[in-house]
Specification:
Blueprint (H helix, E strand, L loop, with lengths): L1 H18 L1 H5 L6 H45 L2 H23 L5 H6 L6 H42 L12 H19 L1
């Protein structure tokens, strides 16, 4: 119900913005309900829109990265070495970013972190290597269809059981239907 209310508010605010674009841009006053909904739209815009766009861009880079890594693996004759070089280049880029932006770190916090917190690097290495190997065999559509399906399934389970997430979100029928549609899309891509 909360999601529907939020979506309807966002849709209402969006429609108000577009319907009243002339009066809004001309500086004419808006109706009180339009002001309230417009302020909600601006709050959503400033809080989440940048991160929504950044997440979309990051996701769109994955097939490009996979293609580049697959070419590197083919050129070098080793997918594992291509994965390693990908991580080295990424590490150098992050080090430069940290130096240029003067980022700080809590060394005590890192020292106190559980051993399991360091597993991200292993999972990343596995992911990049599997993508380098599967990309030429399956193609970008099927490879990343499967990646997205796997991400959706595990993300939903992590949110449902409140594992590694900021706030839990229980599974619902609509979420399961959405995941089934993603898996169905992967099956259709495989068949056609």
């Amino acid at each position: 119900m909360t999601v529907q209310i939020r979506q309807s508010r966002w849709l209402f605010a969006t429609s108000e913005v577009f319907q009243n674009r002339k009066s809004f841009s001309a500086g004419q006053p808006l109706a009180p309900h339009a002001k309230r909904e417009l302020s909600y739209f601006h709050a959503m815009d400033t809080n989440k829109l940048i991160w929504i766009v950044m997440a979309f861009i990051a996701g769109s880079f994955l097939p490009i990265q996979a293609g580049i890594n697959a070419k590197l693996g083919k050129a070098g004759g080793s997918a594992v070495h291509a994965s390693m070089f990908s991580f080295v280049v990424g590490a150098v880029a992050l080090i430069l970013y940290i130096i240029l932006t003067k980022q700080t770190v809590s060394w005590a916090g890192l020292k106190a972190a559980p051993l399991s917190a360091w597993a991200g690097g292993l999972l990343g290495a596995f992911y990049v290597t599997v993508i380098v190997l599967s990309f030429p065999k399956l193609g970008p559509g099927l490879t990343f269809g499967l990646v997205v399906a796997g991400q959706m399934l595990i993300s939903a389970l992590l949110e449902h059981f409140n594992i590694l997430v900021a706030s839990p979100q229980p599974l619902s029928l609509l979420r399961v239907v959405g995941m089934a549609m993603v898996v169905g899309g992967v099956v259709i891509m495989r068949k056609f």
